[in-house]
Write a structure and sequence with these properties.
Length: 149
């Protein structure tokens, strides 16, 4: 299902090229997936395109690995997975340069959150304790009397 948005920034963030370093903790052959543990304890999931890449990953199991690929994000801006394109040993990499969770470049701006708050002040909740018309009390009483007959 496609959703239409007035503002481009409300879309799911675009995938982007990333480099991520962590300890290769898991390889799953059936789904061609893997998991990296980053320095701060966060687990990052990834997928590879070919069975040959799974074979290539085996040598890094339990070791530091640099993954080159595309980070794919969900609508919330959280990282879903990394579509891996290549691997290198992570031993020679700068200690903290690639050891962080890659953030989305496009996230919903604060304006979207403000719109939600304003929506709560509009509509039915906005009409409580107010009368939306321009009528005076006397005009309103006259209209009610006319309706009653």
């Amino acid at each position: 299902m496609k959703y239409r948005h007035q503002n481009r920034t409300e879309h799911t963030p675009r995938a982007r090229q990333v480099r991520v370093t962590g300890v290769l903790d898991m390889i799953r052959h059936s789904t061609r997936s893997f998991a990296l543990n980053l320095e701060d304890g966060i687990e990052v999931r990834g997928v590879v395109k070919t069975p040959e890449q799974i074979e290539e990953l085996k040598q890094f199991l339990g070791k530091k690995l640099l993954v080159l690929g595309r980070a794919v994000y969900g609508a919330s801006g959280k990282l879903l997975r990394i579509d891996a394109e290549g691997f290198e040993s992570g031993d020679g990499q700068p200690p903290r340069l690639f050891a962080k969770l890659p953030k989305a470049r496009e996230v919903r701006p604060a304006l979207v959150r403000i719109k939600r708050a304003l929506h709560q002040q509009q509509g039915v909740p906005a009409f409580f304790d107010t009368w939306p018309g321009e009528e005076t009390d006397e005009d309103f009483e006259w209209m009610v009397a006319e309706l009653r007959g």
